[in-house]
């Protein structure tokens, strides 16, 4: 997957934009500037995703930063930044690896290099600091054992069942698009030849077994998802929050992919210092360690 990420990064178009951070680069000054702003508003970073809940709680309790999130896909986040421009309602977003370069190309990001910048491998970041992958996951299945009696352990197994397979909106969501790519690799294709993966999901659709709704915690809890294609950190998080005995989470034995996510800071952010302080907590502090302790999302600096 590093080769895939590298191919994405090398194709990125890097633009220059003005920075509006605290003049003093010292972290103490940045922290004080963030506290003065008092809030940070996000898109695509809900409590149920990658254990963001504990991160936001820590930012509130330790630094007094209030938080509000509107959940949306990677593509929708970038479109929102671009549409609102100077009337920005969001300071930061969390997008899939392939969408970082797209956000830069659209001219909607501000660069910021956190204190851990040098620890992030070159393949996982924009050289000017517009984005850097913070955590990674591997595409997995989350299976409702109450509704699916024959547990699928591979993509090939999925074709044998009669249950619904829920993947999400492939056109806008990084998780869904990555699910298609994972199936593509399992079927013998790659990022330059998606035909095997598209044919795989075409078979499910023809059988009336494919759902393009998002496999989120609410739909899982209601029993609306029989088998969901999700990042492993989401699957484990959803399982643990709902009922550990009700769901099984596994990585398909015949192939998967690992990819990452990056926080992008809105070029037009109303709270740029609070946003950059949030990015800086990507270091192994008590804030980000909430992910590590839960064994959900893996820091890209461990790869």
From TrEMBL:
Signal peptide range: 1-22
Xref: Pfam families: SBP_bac_6
Source taxon at top rank: Bacteria
Keywords: Signal
An example Gene Ontology molecular-function term: thiamine pyrophosphate binding
GO cellular component: outer membrane-bounded periplasmic space
Spans through the membrane: none
Biological process terms in GO annotation: thiamine transport
Keyword hit for Signal: yes
Gene3D superfamilies per the UniProt record, alphabetical: Periplasmic binding protein-like II
Keyword presence, Protein transport: no
Protein name: 2-aminoethylphosphonate ABC transporter substrate-binding protein
Lineage of producing organism: Bacteria, Pseudomonadati, Pseudomonadota, Gammaproteobacteria, Enterobacterales
